[in-house]
Amino acid sequence: MWKKSKVTDQTAAGQKVNAPERGQWNDKGIRKKSKVPGVMITQFEAELPEGMTTPDFSRKPIAITIQEGKSTAFKAIVVGNPKPTITWTRTNGEIVFHPDTCRQNYSEASHEHTLEFPKVAPEDADTYKCYATNDYGRAVCTAVLNVIEVGFSKAKELQKTYGDDLPDFLRKKLKKCAPKVGAQVQNEPTPEEKVWEILMNAEKKDYERICAEYGITNFRGMLKKLKQMKQEQDVDTAEDGEMVALTKEECDEMKHSLKQVGKKHDSVLYSMDVQGGTVFTADFKVPDVDFAIKLQEVKADERQDALFVCVLTAPLNEIKWFGKNALLSNGEKFEISISEDKLIHKLIVRDCLPLDAGIYAAVAGIKSCNAWLVVEADKEASSKGKKAARKNTIAGLGDDEYLLRTAKEQQEKYQKEMEERLEIAKKAQSERDAAEEATRLEAQAAKKRSAETKAAANAAAKAKKAEEGVDESASFQVGAHVDVEELSEGNEEAGQNSLFMETVEVDKVTSGDSPPRQDKVKGNDHGEETAVKQKGERCGTKEKRPKVKTVDAEDAAVGNDLGEKTAKQKSEKLGKKEIAPKVKFPDEEDPAVGNHHGEETAEQSSEKSGTKENCPKEKIGDVTDTHVESDKGDKEEEEEEVQPPAGKRVRIRQGPLIEETIIDPGVHFLIGLSDCKAIIGEEAELVCKLSSEDCEGIWYKDGGEIKSNEGMTIIKEGSYHKLKLHKVPEEFAGKYKFEADGRKTEALVVVEDPPRFDPEELKTFITPFTVKKGHKATFKISYMGREPVKVQWFLEGEELSDEANIKLETSDGYTRLLLIKLQRKDSGEVKLKLKNEFGIAEALTELIVLDKPTPPMGPVEIVEASSSAIEIKWRPPKDCGGCKIGNYILERQQVGRNTWKKVGLIGPLAKYRDLDVDHGRRYCYRIRVETEMGTSELMETEDIQAGTKAYPGPPSTPKVVSAFKDCINLSWSAPANTGGTNILGYNLEKRKKGSNLWGQVNSPEEMIRAKGFAVKDVVEGMEYEFRVAAINNSGAGEFSTPSEFVFARDPKKPPGKAIDFKVTDSSYTSLCLSWIKPKEIKGVEDEAKGYFVEIRPAENTEWNRCNSNLVTTNFFTVKNMKSMAMYWVRVIAVNDGGEGEPQELNNYILAMPPPVRPRFTDTKIKSFMVVQAGNSARLTMNFEASPWPEVKWLKDDVPVTKTVTISNAEGTSQLLIPSAERSDSGVYTIVVKNIVGQETFSIEIRVTDEPKPPGPVEMEENVPGTVTISWAPSPDEKRDDRLHYMVMKRDSSKRTWNTVADHIFNNKFTACNIMPGREYRFRVYAKNDMGSSKPTESQKWLLPIKKEKFTVNMPRSKSCNLQCPPKFLVPLKMHIAPQGYECYMSCALKGDPTPHVTWLRDNISLNTNTNYYISNTCGVCSLLILRVGSKDTGEYKVVAENPMGRAECSTKLTVRGKYLPEDISTGFGCIEENN
């Protein structure tokens, strides 16, 4: 049941608001609309101070529809300076803030203002307003709260039934039934359908609470049925407000739909519509996630892959990738991957082309980041007109270790936050449990006190009645005897199909001397009322049953109304006719009102039995039943108790009961007919179910009654009625109706004839078809279905059409595919697809084309190559031609011979072991594949050696132990690879520097046994290098790398110290050093061969060598130094005698450049800048200074405000105004200062906007021939001192506008040279630094002119005779053409009238000869010979004739290879004749 609020002050987008225009004042301020729809802002002051703003909503509360008892909240985020205050109001009444009903909160973390309802009640439905107020304005928006009421209220039902004419006794009854203020009111049982609806929408953790709340004891049965209901419900989701069907059937009018009603915020509300009314709202949360590492710009070459990577702050299974505003998905072009921890997300753009360039974005929840993809085109390929080659590299690869490290940090942070949240949740749960336990104990204590009080009152009343002599045994008793055992037997079957397992405790009452008996059917834990299900439920016999009505001790005055509704619902479902017992309400003198739940439970059993019965009602009070006080103004009700002999007391009711009639719904449909789609020739069935098995019905088709016949059969199975249609023809389509007992249900039967195949032919068709290469294959099959049927054949997914090798034939109910000259590549899946208006049918088969196999696949793997055998393996062929491999055929050749030896067939295994080999020889093999289709091409292996010799590896590089003028001592180490045998010795070779020849040191017959040798065959002063080779049983192996060059001379002395060691230049990361070569002193210090440079940080004691190799020059640059760090530096001279003494600098060195006075490095710096209001202004200044300077920005000699962003880096400084305003105009000065000096530079920034046009233009004539133009100033003239005006003019004699004046700083201008009789128009523009405004145009200005008569003397024209005889302007030229080529002759002539042109060859006309192409275009006459032959040799002549004369022009054509005439020079000429 709905409870909707009334929207009384809606300010949503599009609503008309009776407010003054924007910028106009009313009694409270300026009214204006926000950028957020539905928000209205009132500005209190005309001009706001700098930096101050009115309040506004960046996120407004949205309408909510929610079920009663659920929790919900309105959320809003406001902005404004100063910070606004938030207030909430409602249209009807005031908001009562209480922790249990409504509370207002504010979150510092999310800056959200919330109005929370912990447990929504129907009276909370209303229109709520949210006000945001500060000193300069107020913003307001509205939101509606709709509440769905759950449960049944008898008071409301009676109010609906009787309206305002409610009887007095019912008013008093309803008044008495109202619970006392502060008293605990038990939840009314909810009907079965409502409970299932609640369970379907609840979370699993709430199942146990709901079952306990509504009395569900069969928990396992509930879960099973709930699972079945969820499986039957097919719910689709919806986005962007689209309607989404909740049912599986696709019909035109959908009853259920899902619609999105909000999307702007971090949570989205969806509402479900049922037949036009909003029913439920669900809250979908968006994950709280952000980007730890955002996307970076990627530059990729054409045909290269590009990679985008981002790292999230929390794990997310999937994020959305967008490329140029289009959603991307996994495919060949885009590859999306996610790391195992769900933190690193990657997007790879494959094969980048220039069209792929653009912005790519990643969206996670409500967070997003984007970056550019720049694709650089391959200019070389494009210039050649070719497509660039595909590249296998990936652009955008970064530091993977940094990504993994960041992801690990985020994961640890996320886990820590989850643990903290879990601890907070546990703590809150424990607090709630403690509070609930305290409440429960308090309620038990209050209940106990109330029971004691009522017991005391009872005792007092009894004593008072005893004194008055009231005979309690004279009271009469209402009711009848009830056998509880019989009731419990009938309850067993009915309880299995009921959702509620309701039990009661019944006191059996007897009259006279019989002692009363009390039986418990099943006790209720809370002492509440119980329901008795009588024996005989769901049976068709007529019997009389007593109805039991129980009254609880504490709730005697409160009637449970839900049982009536439940009974009525079940009675309507069963559809049984019965005469309901009359229900009597006690009048105002009754002491208590009975519990109605027991009444309706009894009615429930009676109505299910389907019998006519008159059952009296019995109201039995509990032993502990007491009186309940009635409201003031009502008469006291009397209650008498009878004390039976056994000591049992029975409460007796007095007074008449009010009759109430329950309407029997009669026979009705439990399951109606459903629309059916039937296929021609197949069976169909219509089924419905009645509430009674005894009822008969009639079937109709299109209004006419139908009965069983050959085509259809009518079947009745209990309460089910079926109509079976056999082999449905097209005539069976129509509307079918079933009518029974005045009730009817209808359904449409739609007969369809979709395409389909004959099962036997289809079985044959799907069998794979095998054919040999070059042969043909035929596929044919018949089909059924209503025409037209579209027939399509596919081979491996590609549609086939009529071609040279493909023939398609289709006729009525038959189709055939013929494939001619098949190749192996034509093998694949063949698909036949049939389609008509009713559906699609497909048939699949396989085509296998047999062919010769391809060669075996290499490379060949050598398993063994020993002195006695060679074993090889290879891979099978890539394509065996559709057949099994029969054998491999091998041939062998010994390297060095020309013949191949046939090994023969070796079987189907791809391996072979050859035992017929000679040690040390090399062999080559050829391998072929043999199948039933033939033999493949051969595969030839590389040379394989049998018993390969193992030579030792190279020893280590020889090391010079010592050197003298007549001997050099060397040493080396044995090779790591000895070749499997012992090393026998070594060979040593030497080579002089500059020579290419190596000479052996030891004699060839005597190898060196030791790992060292003294070389004495040296020349003093010469420089040598040495190499050595090891020898084993196989022979000498490879030589080692040569040693360093060494002089044959006595050892040298170490050099001295370097001279004049100093620093020549420095920076923050490098240091340039120089020195002079140390002096050479014979016998003491020899010449230096090179130098080592070493540095030591001031905080360390160890020296670090900067160069690993000797520096031979007298300068060196130390790099990778820490900025402003302190270092000690030294240089060491080195020669063959060792290292000399180090030379250090006198003082430490700071890693910094030499002091430099600040100066700006930009050569072209603008001193004036114009910025449009609202745009950003950016100033970048590059400078150099040492040490690093202090940078300041000033505006008009005052430091800039906080709204201006300053960014300083090494050698540059940037000033950024994000959104420029006119107040930002001024002179901005940058001051760069260090210890050496300072430098300043000023730039004027003018923030302005396009000016508004000037006012109306007026004109007047003060001086003849002039016009004075004046206009109203532009509204921007006062705010812009550089604003001026421009005047343009256009007269009636011209179509263009001409500028007559510019840079006018007043509002008047006089235009001169105004001609009478012409219409003039003027336009006035307002101009400033941003441009010009729209023009303001004047009216027409016209000075009348006196018309005078004038005459025009036209000069006489002389006739001109242009006639002339033909004349050649360009004569023919002589031509020599190769035989078989084309020849083109042309000449130009003139003449009037146009002369007639004739072409002649050897005085024979060619105009009619089709072998020559002749044309005459604008006096240019041409003749084209396509293929010149020997017959075309001769004299060609052009004759032009007209009445004025005749002209000729001739030439000669010579074909190459023919004899040339003697006089070629006279072979052409022109002749003219004039008449």
Account of the protein in words:
- With 1475 residues, the protein is mainly β.
- The protein is 12% helix and 39% strand.
- Strands 1, 2, 3, 5, 7, 10 and 11 form a seven-stranded mixed sheet that branches.
- Helix 9 packs parallel to helix 10.
- The longest helix has 69 residues, at 400-468.
- The termini are far apart.
- Residues 1-27, 172-190, 234-283, 470-661 and 1458-1468 have low confidence and may be disordered.
Number of strands: 103
Supply the helix-strand structural class. Answer: mainly beta
Mean pLDDT: 77
Largest sheet: 7 strands, mixed
Number of helices: 11
Query: What are the segments in which pLDDT stays under 50 over at least 5 consecutive residues?
Result: 1-27, 172-190, 234-283, 470-661, 1458-1468
Q: How big a fraction of the residues is strand?
A: 35-45%
CA-CA gap between termini: 117 Å
Cα-atom radius of gyration? 55 Å
Assembly state: single chain
Give the helix level as a range of percent. 10-25%
Shape descriptor reads extended
Offer a few descriptive terms.
6-stranded antiparallel beta sheet; 1475 residues; 11 helices
Produce a short descriptive summary.
This protein is mainly beta and 1475 residues long.
List the helices and strands and how they pair.
Blueprint: E1 2-3, E2 30-33, E3 40-43, E4 53-59, E5 64-67, E6 72-81, E7 85-90, E8 103-107, E9 112-117, E10 126-134, E11 137-148, H1 154-162, H2 168-177, H3 192-201, H4 207-214, H5 219-232, E12 244-245, E13 256-260, E14 267-274, E15 277-285, E16 291-293, E17 298-301, E18 305-312, E19 320-323, E20 326-327, E21 334-338, E22 344-349, E23 358-364, E24 367-376, H6 379-383, E25 394-395, H7 400-468, H8 484-496, E26 505-507, E27 518-520, E28 547-551, H9 562-574, H10 596-609, E29 617-621, E30 640-642, E31 650-652, E32 669-671, E33 676-679, E34 684-690, E35 698-701, E36 704-706, E37 712-717, E38 720-725, E39 734-740, E40 743-752, E41 756-757, H11 759-765, E42 769-772, E43 777-784, E44 790-795, E45 798-799, E46 806-811, E47 814-819, E48 828-836, E49 839-850, E50 857-865, E51 870-875, E52 887-894, E53 901-905, E54 911-914, E55 922-931, E56 934-935, E57 939-940, E58 944-945, E59 959-963, E60 968-971, E61 985-992, E62 999-1000, E63 1012-1015, E64 1023-1032, E65 1035-1039, E66 1046-1047, E67 1059-1066, E68 1071-1076, E69 1090-1097, ...
Parallel strand pairs: 5-11, 17-24, 18-25, 28-29, 33-40, 42-49, 77-84, 95-102
Antiparallel strand pairs: 1-11, 2-3, 3-11, 4-6, 6-9, 7-10, 8-9, 10-11, 12-13, 13-14, 14-15, 16-18, 18-22, 19-20, 19-23, 21-22, 23-24, 26-27, 30-31, 32-34, 34-38, 35-36, 35-39, 37-38, 39-40, 41-43, 43-47, 44-45, 44-48, 46-47, 48-49, 50-51, 51-54, 52-53, 52-55, 55-56, 55-57, 55-58, 59-60, 60-63, ...
Helix pairs in contact: 9-10
